[in-house]
């Protein structure tokens, strides 16, 4: 398959699975040669758990690499582009071992849906926070015109590569006039769409202040847990007022630089799967479903410290800080075996929150209120379920993704 056919196949899949609609974003994705923005990418060669991990850097200039690289670039998955914080320009293809992947291009379905949500239009001034591989900036250039696009990233190696690849290659349909900047606060002035391509703890107030009337900002908001993210959608009305909501979503960008993360270790997962727990019961109360995303978003903030094991067959949740865990398995219709371990009764915490969530109308979206003292609060429409987002920290606009 050649790149043109691969792009068409990728866009067709985005239409089928991710709701990509006819319009400027779709047209831009059809025109965007991803092999220009990502002429090199990593593929993992080591088995899960193998130490040290091994990756091969594939190079578009090497004919033997092109078939596999084409599948990576247009397969819709995350594309691994940086190992151990290295420069992207001047690399030699081959194997790397140890350390970790430090930058990747986001899953294409997520990027496409967010770009559609931004409602990009010709002539808009766009601020793209988190340049990464430059895909978002390239699409914005194609739709809005590259003279009004500013993209920032804290990783100089990423901005160096994006500058060269956006501006120096004639095959890109747009990008020569885009301004690529390194770490620091944006001086883009008032802009309409603002795209933040990494997760944050709250909507960045400094970016909200830059929204022009009619402008929209999108940023994923999460706690330290990666399990149940929200999407902050912030708009400034034609009259200058801010209207915002926090939507429960299934997937989100990776956390921004320096943001605390908690995980379930492999050893912890094994203990949850095999140990008997502190106590067990057979319950007629059903666990929340995966579709109850508004409930899980509230749990992420109101209960705190919980991580879901999405690789488990049934509901498994752990609290790494205290070692508590929950395992729920169906035994027959309307009956579940519930096993609890540790100082936290996670099952009771969740069931108590279910009652509150349902009393609030089972929302999947919450109003996001900006308070006079700088605080931010998520509130259900009826006001019966709410929580405060973390207190502000210095904005690091341009965190790498």
UniProtKB/TrEMBL annotation:
Subcellular localization(s) per the UniProt record: Cytoplasm
Keywords assigned by UniProt, alphabetized: Cytoplasm, Methyltransferase, S-adenosyl-L-methionine, Transferase
Enzyme class: transferase
EC number assigned by the record: 2.1.1.77
Bilayer-spanning residue ranges: none
Domain of life the protein comes from: Bacteria
Family membership noted in the UniProt record: Belongs to the methyltransferase superfamily. L-isoaspartyl/D-aspartyl protein methyltransferase family.
The protein's name: Protein-L-isoaspartate O-methyltransferase
């Amino acid at each position: 398959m050649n790149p043109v056919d691969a792009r068409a196949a990728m866009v067709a899949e985005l239409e089928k699975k991710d709701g990509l609609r006819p319009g400027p974003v779709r047209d831009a994705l059809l025109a965007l040669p991803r092999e220009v923005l990502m002429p090199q990418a990593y593929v993992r060669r080591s088995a899960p758990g193998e130490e040290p991990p091994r990756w091969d850097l594939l190079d578009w200039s090497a004919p033997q690499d092109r078939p596999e690289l084409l599948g990576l670039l247009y397969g819709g998955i995350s594309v691994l582009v940086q190992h151990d914080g290295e420069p992207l320009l001047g690399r030699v293809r081959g194997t790397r071992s140890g350390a970790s992947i430090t930058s990747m291009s986001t899953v294409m379905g997520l990027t496409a849906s967010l770009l559609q949500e931004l409602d990009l239009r010709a002539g808009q001034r766009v601020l793209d926070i988190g340049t990464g591989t430059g895909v978002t900036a390239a699409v914005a250039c194609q739709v809005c015109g590259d003279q009004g696009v500013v993209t920032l990233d804290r990783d100089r190696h990423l901005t160096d590569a994006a500058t060269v690849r956006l501006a120096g290659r004639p095959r890109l349909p747009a990008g020569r006039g885009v301004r690529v900047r390194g770490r620091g606060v944006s001086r883009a002035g008032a802009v309409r769409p603002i795209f933040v391509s990494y997760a944050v703890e709250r909507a960045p107030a400094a970016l909200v202040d830059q929204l022009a009337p009619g402008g929209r900002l999108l940023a994923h908001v999460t706690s330290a847990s990666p399990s149940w993210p929200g999407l902050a959608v912030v708009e400034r009305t034609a009259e200058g007022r801010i209207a915002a909501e926090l939507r429960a979503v299934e997937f989100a960008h990776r956390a921004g630089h320096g943001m605390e993360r908690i995980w379930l270790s492999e050893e912890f997962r094994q203990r949850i799967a095999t140990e008997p727990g502190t106590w067990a019961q057979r319950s007629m109360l059903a666990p929340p479903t995966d579709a109850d995303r508004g409930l899980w978003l509230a749990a992420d903030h109101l209960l705190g410290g919980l991580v879901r094991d999405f690789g488990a067959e049934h509901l498994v949740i752990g609290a790494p800080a205290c070692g508590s865990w929950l395992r729920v398995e169906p035994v027959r219709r309307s009956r579940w075996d519930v096993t609890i371990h540790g100082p936290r009764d996670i099952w009771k915490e969740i069931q108590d929150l279910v009652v509150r969530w349902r009393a609030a109308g089972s929302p999947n979206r919450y109003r996001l209120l900006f308070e006079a003292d700088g605080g931010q609060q998520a509130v259900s429409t009826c006001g019966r379920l709410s929580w405060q987002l973390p207190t502000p920290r210095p904005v690091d606009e341009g965190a790498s993704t």
